[in-house]
Amino acid sequence: MSELPSKYKAYLKLKKRMAGYAGAFTKKLRQSLASRNNIAFGRLKDSVRTKVRDTVVNGQRILGLETQVLGYGQFLNKNIHPKSMPNTDAIIAWMKQKGIKPMKNKRGRFMSYRQASYLIARAIQKRGFATYNKHEIGWADIVAAEEFRRLKRRSQTDLRRAVSELTIEIIDSVKKE
Length: 177
Prior knowledge:
Elements: H1 6-35, H2 43-47, E1 49-57, E2 60-68, H3 71-78, H4 88-98, H5 113-127, H6 139-176
Antiparallel strand pairs: 1-2
Helix pairs in contact: 1-6, 4-5
């Protein structure tokens, strides 16, 4: 059985290290949602996934990280106005989960959950989702900026180590020949 080429071993090590970064980033995004009390059912939190993306461009392999989240996670992050009316059934479920009861309408009668959810959906369609800080920076952007600063320092160390190991392995293989 032949041994893997040293370049490929180094590549696999780097890919494994990046997968560790992806897992840490996913964990931090989920913690950020939980700390901001954005969890009603946990579907948004559970949908957050970051994985290593391996692509070939012009004959060169490029490793990158790709984060996926449910569609409304992007709306929450960027205060984007949805193109269509949000799902009123989902808003009703959210209201019940959070213990939000409909208030009285202008005539003094209590609204139904359906009426209240329609008003909320219409407001979201009109004004978008509120951001957490009035600077239009969303929850994922804040976490990503912090994580990228941290990863920049760590990735430089990992890259130096990987190149050093690769160089040593190549020198050793040349000496053996």
